[in-house]
Amino acid sequence: MRRAAALAAAALALALALGAPPPTFVVYGSSLCPVCAKQKEALGQLAAEGARVVFVDTLNRTAAGEFYRLYELLVGGKP
Q1: Residue 61, CB half-sphere, CA atoms under 13 Å: how many?
Q2: For every one of its 79 residues, what pLDDT tens digit does the chain have, with 9 covering 90 and above?
Q3: Which of 25, 30, 38, 72 lies at a C-alpha separation of 20 to 30 Å from 66?
Q4: Which residues make Cβ contacts (< 8 Å) with residue 42, sequence separation at least 6?
Q5: What are 52's strand-pairing partners?
């Protein structure tokens, strides 16, 4: 999680340095998951710095299906 937050912070810093629009981070997680809650909090700090952050709660069946499809396309296999 720290590595992901560091990469997100670097992406935001690079966009701001280049004068590009801030990146949008779409995060899939569960509102009941303590790790997801920490990640959401860390990304909230990026939002305060100008990034756009969207948290998609996978408790929603449609969102969970979307997450699994994206994971299979981008990573391969099942999470």
Answers
A1: 0
A2: 567 667 777 887 888 888 888 888 888 889 899 998 888 888 888 888 888 888 899 998 999 998 888 888 888 877 7
A3: 38
A4: 1, 5
A5: 24
**Tokens describing residue 14:** 């690079």
**Tally of residues, the chain:** 79
> Residue 51 is encoded by which pair of tokens?
């990034």
Task: Please compute Rg for the chain using Cα positions.
Answer: 13
Residues whose CB falls within 8 Å of the CB of residue 77, separated by 6 or more in sequence, listed in order: 71
